[in-house]
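Collaborator request, handled under Task 6.
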Amino acid sequence: MSEDMKNIMSWFLRGAAVVVVLALAGAGYVVYATVWGTPLRFNDLLNRQAIFEAMDSPQTLTQLGVTDGTWYDFTSGKLDPYSLAARQKRFDRTRKFDAELAAWNRNSLTPQEKISYDIVRWNYARRLADEKYPWLGANNALYPVNQAFGVQQALPNFLLSVHRITNTRMARHYVQRLKALGGVIDAVRIDVARQAEAGVIAPDFIIDDSIEQMERLIGTIPGENPLIKHLVERTNAIGMNGTARDALINRAVVVMLDVVYPAYRRLIAEEWVLHGHANHAAGVWRLPGGIAYYADQLKTLTSTDMTPDEIHAYGLSEVARISAEMDIVLKSVGLTSGTVGERMDHLMADPRFLYPDNNVGRAQMLARYQQILGRAKMLLPDYFLHVPGIPLEVRRVPPFAERGAPGAYYQRPSLDGRRPGMFFANLRNVAETPMWAMPTLAYHEGIPGHHLQNATAIEIEGLPLQRRMGFLPAYGEGWALYAEHLAMDMGLYKNDPYGDLGRLQAELFRAVRLVVDTGIHAKHWSREEAIAYMQSTTGMANSDVTAEVERYVVWPGQACAYKIGMKTIMDLRTRAEGELGPRFNIKEFHGVILENGAMPLWLLQKNVDRWIAEKEGLGQTR
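C-alpha cells returned to the collaborator:
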C-alpha cells in the first residue's frame, strides 16, 4: 500500500464509487475485507481510521481536496450531518478506534509508530472527555450559534473559501450545499432550544452579536448576497455555458429565497426568544458542570495539567516582563509619558502609521501583507531544512463576518496542495492594524507561522494522515507565536523599533489572554472588566479588544494555548542551546519541531529531549 495518503484515499474512494455504480455488494465486501479488514501494518490501521472518519464528513473530504469535482465525487454536494445521533456516532466510533489501538502491542512498534500511537490515543481520550457534558451542542460546541465560530457563519465561510468551484459539477454541488445549509440551520435552531432547557444559553451580548451577523448575511436581495455573487464570479471564471449557467444561478437565487433566508429568519427568531432568558455573565462557571468543563478544556487546549490559577499567575508575570521590555523600546522612540498601554494607545492612533479607511487603503494593506510574506519566505532556507512549496494567499475576511471575527486567521491548504493556504485579514477598521503591527500578524498567520507549519506537515512523507493533517491548539498556536519571535532572530525587525513594538505588543496580547481567559471562566470576571483590563494593558483598539474578549467567552481555554505553547518551544530551544553548545543547529531543531506533525506539548518535550541525547551521543563518539 502506498504511503502517500492522497493516493490511498483517492484509490479507496474510486473503488467505493465503482462498487456503488455497479451495485456489486459482494465485491465491496471483498475490497473492505482484503484492504481494510485486518491491517498488516500499524500505519495502515491509522490510515483506515482517518479515512473512515473523513468518509463520514463531506466537509472534511472537501477540506482535503481529494475527490471534489471528479467523476466519483458523491459528497461535495452535502454538508456534515448535524444531530445528537451524529454526535453519539462520533463518540462510539472514537471508542472503537481507541480499542483497536489499545489492542496493538506498543512495544512492537517503531519509534515513529510509537509517537503516532501516543498522539492518536491522547487525541481520542480528549475527544471522549466531552461526552461527560450532554448539554454541549450537537457539534460539541459550547454555543453552536456565536459570532466568532458559530455554525451560522462558519458554513457560509466554508462555501466561500473551501468549496472550490473548478468545474460544472462543483458549481452544481455548490447550489446543493446552499440548499443543505437551510436544513443545518434549522437543526441548529432545534439544538440551541434543547441546550436552553438544560440551562445552557449564551450570554446576552453573544446573542446580540450573532443576530446582527445573521441579519447582515440575509439583509440584501439574494443577487447581492456574497454566496450568490461568489457563484456568479466563479461560474464565469470557469467558462460555464451561458444557458446552463443562468439556469444554475436562478436556481441558487430560488434556494436562497425559499430555503436559506427563511431558515436564518427562524434561527434569528429563536435567538430572540433565548435572549429573553439570557444573562450578562460571561464565564462557564455559571453553567451546570461548567467548572469541570473549563478544566477539561484547558487540558485539551494546552495539552498540559496547568490549573486556572497557575495559568493566571504565569500570565500576570509575563505581562510585567513584556511591559518592561516595551517601556525601553517606547522610550527609544521618544514616547516617555504615561503607562505602556497609554503610550501604545497613542501610537495606535498616530496617522503616520494608518492606511486610508477606504477601499484603496484596504487594497494597499493586502498588497503590503504580500510583500512582508515574500521577504520572510526568502530567508527560510537559512533556518529550515525543508521549505514547503505550497503557496499562500492573502484575502480579506468576508465583510458580513468581519464584526465578530478575529483580527486575522489562517485556513490550511488542501491535502494535495491544489488549494493554497489562506491568510485572512480583518479589514473592518484599518485603525485596528497600524503599519507597524502588520509584519507580526503576517509572520504569525503566514510565514514562518501557521502556513509554514501546516504546509510542512502536509508534505511529510511516510507518516499517517493524522500526523500530516492534525491540529492541536497548543502546538499550532504555540508555533505561530514562536514564529513571531523567530522573525526577530531572522533580522526581520532590524532597525525597525516600531515593528519590534508590534512584536512585543502581540506577545503581550497573548500574555494578557492568559489572564483574561482564566479571569472570565474561573475568577468570575465580567465582559466589561476583561475588556478594560486588556485595552488598558495593551493599548489595542477597543473594537479589536471587544471582539477578542467575546471570542474567549464562546471558546473557553483556547486563548491560553498560544502562550503556553510558545513557552514550551522557547524553553526547549533554550535547553537545547545550553546543552549542545556549538553542536546546536537551528535548522535541525526546527526540523524536530515541525517535521513530525502536530503533537501534545508533553510529547514534543520528549522528542526534543531524545534529539538532544542523540546529538550529545554523537559528540561523545567523535
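The cover message to the collaborator said: "The chain has 25 helices and three strands. Strands lie at 392-396, 408-411, 421-425. Please let us know whether this matches your experimental observations."
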